[in-house]
Amino acid sequence: MPHRHNPEQNRLLAALHPHELQELLPHLQVVHLKAGEQLAESGERLSHVYFPIDSAISLFYRLENGGSAGVAVIGNEGMFSVAQVLGGAGIPYWATVETSGHVFQVAADRLCEMSKNLTTLCDILLLYAQASLTQIAQTVVCEKHHSLRQQLCQHLLLINDKSLSDDFRLTHEAIANMLGVRRESITEEAGELREQGLIDYNRGHVKVLNRAGLEKQCCECYSVVRDEFTRLLGNER
């Protein structure tokens, strides 16, 4: 594996007992995912699962009328898809890469088999599944009760966390797809944030200039999800 990537860059892998991590390491491969790449269709059983390092994977539900709705964003706090390991096989969502970056890839069957004998791995995956339910539930709350500005700030903070950088590639179109709004609406709101000196963006790149300012304009949903992940999985290293 490239020296600049290590398991502690993914929260689930970092939480493993050292001897269990050593057993898993030979089966992990670092791969690069490109923004826009589709990882899974609804109901598809994956041959591999992914532990993100500095990329973000978005889950969507595709409506019968052709529209779609964002469900969750997965980054270095988790994995895609935990259902493969816990016996659920496919999930009713399709997954795409929202921001380019690296992941640890491992064969799904191999991880399933190892989880039967690695106690902390099984426990951690169950706790992660519980935390993920909070994220999905909070997404519903946010869409119903909070403004587009608040949702945009929350999304930028999430991607900032998962990218391991204040400068990341993220298009207005990708944000609009996730939040279920017109791209023009995102461009307008992002312009306001840039005028306030909170972010800058150019040619599909976003740079966070004032994270504290973004957090002030964000709704409580960001901290609710963050605190639940901390409660269940411990502090980030």
From TrEMBL:
Q: Which SUPFAM superfamilies match?
A: cAMP-binding domain-like (SSF51206), Winged helix' DNA-binding domain (SSF46785)
Chain segments annotated as coiled-coil in the UniProt record: none
- Ranges for domain HTH crp-type: 146-212
Name all Cyclic nucleotide-binding domain ranges.
12-110
Q: Which GO terms describe its molecular function?
A: DNA binding; DNA-binding transcription factor activity
Q: Which residues form the signal peptide?
A: none
InterPro entries this protein is in?
cNMP-bd_dom, cNMP-bd_dom_sf, Env_Response_Regulators, HTH_CRP, RmlC-like_jellyroll, WH-like_DNA-bd_sf, WH_DNA-bd_sf
- CDD domains in the cross-refs: CAP_ED
Q: Name one Pfam family in it.
A: HTH_Crp_2
- Keywords, sorted A to Z: DNA-binding, Transcription, Transcription regulation
A Gene Ontology cellular-component term: cytosol
- Which PANTHER family does the protein's record reference? CRP FAMILY TRANSCRIPTIONAL REGULATORY PROTEIN, HTH-TYPE TRANSCRIPTIONAL REGULATOR ARCR
Q: Under which name does UniProt file this protein?
A: Transcriptional regulator, Crp/Fnr family
Q: Which organism is it from?
A: Sideroxydans lithotrophicus (strain ES-1)
